[in-house]
Amino acid sequence: MGRxxxxxxxxxxxxxxxxxxxxxxxxxxxxxxxxxxLDRVSKQSRxxxxxxxxxxxxxxxxxxxxxxxxKTPITVRYDVVNTNRNIGTKLSGRIAxxxxxxxxxxxxxxxxxxxxxxxxxxxxxxxxGIRLTLTGEANDYVGKGMCGxxxxxxxxxxxxxxxxxxxxxxxxxxxxxxxxxxxxxGRAGERFCVRNSGGVAxxxxxxxxxxxxxxDGLVVILGPTGKNFGAGxxxxxxxxxxxLEHMELMLNDEMVxxxxxxxxxxxxxxxxxxxxxxxxxxxxMAAEILADWPTAVARFVKVAPKKDVAATARLxxxxxxxxxxxxx
Length: 328
Known about the structure:
Blueprint (H helix, E strand, L loop, with lengths): L15 H4 L10 H5 L20 H8 L1 H6 L4 E7 L8 H11 L10 E9 L11 E9 L8 E8 L24 E6 L12 E7 L12 E6 L15 E5 L2 H7 L5 E4 L4 H18 L2 H8 L1 H5 L2 E6 L1 H11 L11
Parallel strand pairs: 1-2, 2-3, 3-4, 4-5, 5-6, 6-7, 7-8
Antiparallel strand pairs: 8-10, 9-10
């Protein structure tokens, strides 16, 4: 730190772009320019703590009446930045403690409208009765461990990009969720819905290792997936709007299969979820799919566990099956 005399820009043979990068402002000797000696190492012992109270403390005060009676509808609005972490977690704890349960308050009774870039763990351990609507983007761990409620993440109306081609939420979304719903007007990062055990999600693309170790729940992906999809998946189902050839390449088929998407009830349920996604996020991708639904249905790929593998795993868990001992 602070010793630019030991640094030089390296030339990359045959790489015109790299050699045109100007690093002069990075390599400048600040002390010499200032005409005085400057400390090259930290001389001040510091460990900045959290100065502001969590946003949930403000939310809890603003919705205190609804927490108490469990029925008065209320809408509150806040601007957020990426240091606002775990939004909705403490609020969920207060509700669960007051009402001794998760699904006591009707869905959407506490409507929290957020604007900006939310920090990690938006809606972690979210419980029933809460709807978090974020216009902007969110970091990793959205909906981690959620057991109820709704999380809606949508792009701003004025934008210079296509939401379906860009990430709007980070990695490890809905990790270990046991309930609740997520609607994201854009793509998610890697390890989407890992160990999902009952949550419902609609997104517009995911990264690698999607639905890894998933045991229950329902996932609709209106776009491409990354590699190793469905690794260790033993329950639930995923519906992907992608061509069959690409999905076969991305799938980890050790425990899952691509199965027919032709059951009328199945098709109706997925259409209803996409309609709800459109209503809540104003998704251009959802609107495009619904506008030509008969054609779109043919592009959906359903991924579900192999029945024999799932049954065997369950029986092994119950101790009914033992691996044979091979005599030497």
